[in-house]
């Protein structure tokens, strides 16, 4: 969370996001669903709800439904400078989420670490330090995965730092929009007719908001952050996602799995 | 360059890449063009040719022609852990390349720094430290740019670290291939006919190899690295790219601009 976000929040205790967090704290609401500013929502939730025992930094989990089998990626932008153990905790939380909170939940989800090559020596210092934490855990860890693997269904959960994750998210949005425009122009120039509903279907297939928005994992509460451009379907999907996470008891599951996956922890 | 690449190189002094580097060193060849392994080519070129005066780490520059005006990005994978001054040097080298070595060269190219927001406080520590180096230089610096800006023509040169750059490159390849497959399936299901040449045209518009491959900037020689899957057009484009870089005298230009853009340097 940035300092400016925290400062803005303190100066506006009556903002809609601060009041919604308050409703969760006072148990008037079971979950928080916001289509507002992501940074403000992360800041307000982290400050107001606190983090789960043992969790240092919350992460934003986004689920893509590209191949007919969903892929959950995290962190997509909550924390640009994570430590290796934060990445490991994202793996645990993402694994719980992928197993218990998705319509097509995976049994013992395959967890991968986003890298620029499969070999152990690849990538940043952060990734080299995080790798043994995953390898030594009880997660169903499948090793380093490459960006193209998101479209190949080689992992159910893909862990990355918040900077890279946010680049991935924004690049996918930008490239998809660009390519679909190109396709439409190309079709028009060939006098090929193609209905707007087919285009909408394509757009939806890469739009994570259609799958229920983003979950902020690691705070003491269920928080779903939708896209600012969400339509009514995306909003109702986000509400449904929040309800599924509540029903699954995701907070308790994460706490249990954090303890199990890394037995030496005593504070989880 | 990874240790394993350097070791592999030393153990194989007669490999085709080592001999091609040798031909450039002995001035039997003016430039090196390879469609082989990128890591091996970077390692062989860096070891064999050395770096330009003042340049610490070479960077891989890739040019996309998406909007009718080319965008050059670097580093796309030579150096996963650059320092702020390396990023700055990528900006200078990318600027020279975009001005002098492209068919549609830009006058005083606009240089942006890839980030997850336009504000100065955004992103990693590396980016926060690199920002003032760009701001205090004579580059035509347009500030932080976001991943979606690659498709919006807001900068001619986009600077990033080699890890993020390589993620961007591989994600673009993966997503483009995935989306085009989706489009073809969707078209077929609507009984819409669309020729393979239209598909090929679309593929080419996002394929950097079609624009002449990747240039390794910062070594004492002209080095072009093509995609392993290059067809004859891509190979001839890569050769043409190498010839243009030679004709433009890119090595001398980079040396001059490094001195000019950062006047306090004495070793350039």
List descriptors.
about 15% strand; about 270 residues; alpha/beta; disordered C terminus; 8 strands
Strands in their spatial order, largest beta sheet of chain A: 1-8-7-2-3-6-4-5
Quaternary structure type: homodimer
User: Biggest chain pair contact, residues each?
Assistant: A-B, 51 and 51 residues
Shape of chain A: globular
Radius of gyration of chain A: 19 Å
Distance between the termini of chain A: 22 Å
Q: Describe the largest sheet of chain A.
A: 8 strands, mixed
Query: Which structural category do the helix and sheet elements of chain A fall into?
Result: alpha/beta
**Count of distinct strands of chain A:** 8
Q: What amount of the residues of chain A lies in strands?
A: 5-15%
Number of helices of chain A: 9
Low-confidence stretches of chain A: 263-268
Task: Average the pLDDT over all residues of chain A and give the rounded result.
Answer: 87
Helical coverage of chain A, percent range: 40-55%
Order of helices and strands of chain A: HHEHEEHEHEEHHEEHH
How would you characterize the overall build of this protein?
The structure is a homodimer of 268-residue chains. Chain A has helices spanning 3-11, 16-25, 38-49, 84-100, 125-135, 162-189, 196-206, 232-247, 250-261, and strands at 31-34, 59-64, 71-74, 110-114, 140-145, 157-159, 214-217, 222-225. Chain A is an alpha/beta fold and 268 residues long. Chain A has an 8-stranded mixed β-sheet with strand order 1-8-7-2-3-6-4-5, with helices on both faces. In chain A, strand 7 (214-217) and strand 8 (222-225) form a beta hairpin. Chain A is globular, with a radius of gyration of 19 Å. Residues 263-268 of chain A have low confidence and may be disordered. Chains A and B meet through helix 6 and helix 7 of A and helix 6 and helix 7 of B.
